[in-house]
Specification:
Pfam families (chains A, B): Y_phosphatase2
Helix content of chain A: 25-40%
Largest sheet of chain A: 5 strands, mixed
Number of domains of chain A: 2
Protein name (chains A, B): Putative tyrosine-protein phosphatase
Organism (chains A, B): Morus notabilis
GO cellular component, one term (chains A, B): cytoplasm
GO molecular function (chains A, B): phosphatase activity
Strand order of the largest sheet of chain A: 2-3-1-4-5
Order of helices and strands of chain A: EHEEHEHEHHH
Structural class of chain A: alpha+beta
Number of strands of chain A: 5
Radius of gyration of chain A: 17 Å
Oligomer: homodimer
CATH topology of the largest domain in chain A: Protein-Tyrosine Phosphatase, Chain A
């Protein structure tokens, strides 16, 4: 299944609404040995922060769940046509995380396309958008995806804020 | 000069203290043609968001100044031994941005090392830290840098918050 592939992003954007969430784990207060025994976080493949409260990553597995909890995310946007695996659905339910599935076909790098269109809205120049796309797509980079980003019509969304990087909403 | 090189990151981390900053540009309110004529933003090479209010990038040039303004940054951490160029100093002065220079020698990818050490503090597993390091270092990736990140002693900083991704401070 595509969603089980381990080659990076398969179409998941994790978004955090603009609100304050408690940390899942409090900072360590014990001694050094206690801290050393603490679990390490395992971010999903290709994990990165896109903007305030918006993250991107490959499809998360069980190993990533505690990291996702630490982010305090409230919703996940899933871009693959395949059904969301039951174990992940259970994790979302247990943590009050909403799932929004948009089955996108015909692109090699769905998350990269979505982030690229967001950058168009933020008025990034195309060379910077493509640089970011290629950094995450690596071997999956496709000219057709970049053409899609370039031709994405932002005119209907012209009242979208130009950038949200500077606001700590 | 290294700081003028165009091959990606040369040691700049741009940080935004946890406070609310106004956007440098208000959203477009005019017609479509007006919006189309608006300037596009040119982020510095290898620009990315590291965490809330913390950004990374290669050395910024004049073309990047309006983008940096839009972020509302308050300080820049500069990791190269070379003097900061006068044009950039003027830009910082005009925008009330502080400059903090730490002349780091003997690493191929200074910003990547610094971000890697931050990820150690955030308790990311090493495979994820190295994956992120390599994504930005590309051809400049060095095993010695990754060894530095691995051996970085976080015990003296054990009271550092494990993760700040979830807080919108």
């Amino acid at each position: 299944m595509k969603v089980e592939s381990s080659d990076g992003e398969t179409g998941t954007v994790i978004s955090l609404p603009p609100a304050v969430f408690p940390t899942a784990k409090a900072p360590a207060t014990g001694g050094e040995s206690e801290r050393e025994e603490e679990e390490l976080f395992v971010p999903p493949l290709n994990f990165a922060m896109v903007d305030n409260g918006v993250f991107r990553s490959g499809f998360p597995s069980f190993a990533n769940f505690s990291f996702l909890q630490s982010l305090g995310i409230r919703s996940i946007v899933y871009l693959c046509p395949e059904p969301y695996p039951e174990a992940n659905v259970e994790f979302l339910k247990a943590n009050g995380i909403g799932l929004y599935q948009f089955a996108i076909e015909g692109t090699q790098h769905r998350t990269g396309c979505l982030v690229g269109c967001l950058r168009r809205l933020q008025r990034w120049c195309l060379s910077s958008i493509f640089d970011e796309y290629q950094r995450f797509a690596a071997a999956k980079a496709r000219v057709s995806d970049q053409r899609f980003i370039e031709l994405f019509d932002v005119s209907s969304l012209k009242h979208f804020p130009l950038s949200c990087s500077c606001s700590n909403r």
